[in-house]
Design goal:
This protein is mainly alpha-helical and 83 residues long. The protein has a domain at 28-82. The chain is 77% helix and 0% strand. It has four helices and no strands. It has helices at 8-11, 16-25, 27-48, 55-82. It is elongated.
Length: 83
């Protein structure tokens, strides 16, 4: 299995300008952005180091990451629609 990080810029390359703008100008977006990347780093570390954890914990963390990504994408789309 090939492991990779899921950075927002990699996940949404067509929206990198909006992501950077929001990260610098929207405190709520920046907080969620940081939470997303901390979670992504944790998941990557658990998978790449083959760290002892339960499947349930790993699945829960991945679900949190997906939900955060959905919230962040909604914020990105709203920002782009307002421009």
């Amino acid at each position: 299995m090939s492991l990779e990080k899921h950075s927002l810029l990699k996940e949404f390359p067509d929206h990198h300008h909006t992501i950077r703008h929001l990260k610098m100008n929207d405190a709520h977006f920046a907080k969620l952005f940081d939470q997303y990347h901390e979670l992504d780093n944790e998941i990557f570390k658990l998978e790449s180091d083959n760290s002892p954890t339960t499947d349930q914990y790993l699945d829960t963390q991945k679900l949190k990451r997906v939900r955060l990504k959905d919230v962040l994408f909604d914020l990105i789309k709203k920002e782009e629609a307002s421009q």
